[in-house]
Amino acid sequence: MKTKFTSLVTVKKNSVQKSESIVEDANATLKNASNALKISIQSLDEIDAPQSGTMNDFLASRTLLDLTRTNIQYNKEWLEFATTQLNAAKEQLKLDMVEYEKFKYLDLEEIKKILQKQKMLEAKELDEVALMTHARKNNRKKG
């Protein structure tokens, strides 16, 4: 049964589905950022500082350590950003779900009103039929 809220319910449902998809994507991004951070921290642990060698070996090792630390910092920032994005997506999903539930409720209430009106009309029609039948019986008894 269609009401004035039916199309809005459909639009809000689509909005909720889109928000759910965004939350899933944000979760995947957060997971990727977390994995990247773990990998970069593990790679830092795997770097051994040379105990002997040329100055170039020491400089290369230091450069590698600096790059790894920079990579870790970048991945931390990416993780922070991904967390922020996920939280924002969850908040939007919450808002969309509230809107959807609100219009869904209004739609159901409107359907209830329509059904109540139909029941009242049917009751009136049955009363009229009963009155006409009663009137015929009375006319037959008199006649």
If you had to describe this structure to a student in words, what would you say it looks like?
The protein contains two helices and no strands. The radius of gyration is 35 Å and the shape is rod-shaped. 90% of the residues lie in helices and 0% in strands. The chain has a single domain (6-108), classed as Helix Hairpins, CATH 1.10.287.1700. Helix 1 packs antiparallel against helix 2. With 143 residues, the protein is mainly alpha-helical. The protein starts with 5 loop residues before the first helix and ends with a helix. The chain has helices at 6-46, 55-142.
In short, what is this structure?
With 143 residues, this protein is mainly alpha-helical. The chain is built from two helices and no strands. It has a single domain, classed as Helix Hairpins (Orthogonal Bundle).
Classify the helix fraction into a percent range: over 70%
Order of helices and strands: HH
- Morphology: rod-shaped
Spatial separation of the terminal alpha carbons: 48 Å
Poorly predicted tracts of residues: none
CATH architecture classification name? Orthogonal Bundle
* Structural class computed from helices and strand pairing: mainly alpha
Alpha-carbon Rg, integer: 35 Å
Oligomer: single chain
Query: What number is the mean pLDDT?
Result: 91
Provide a count of the helices: 2
| Count of DSSP strands | 0
Question: What is the name of the CATH topology?
Answer: Helix Hairpins
Hey, roughly how much beta strand do the residues contain? under 5%
Q: CATH top level?
A: Mainly Alpha
Q: Main beta sheet: strand number and arrangement?
A: none
Q: Tell me the number of structural domains.
A: 1
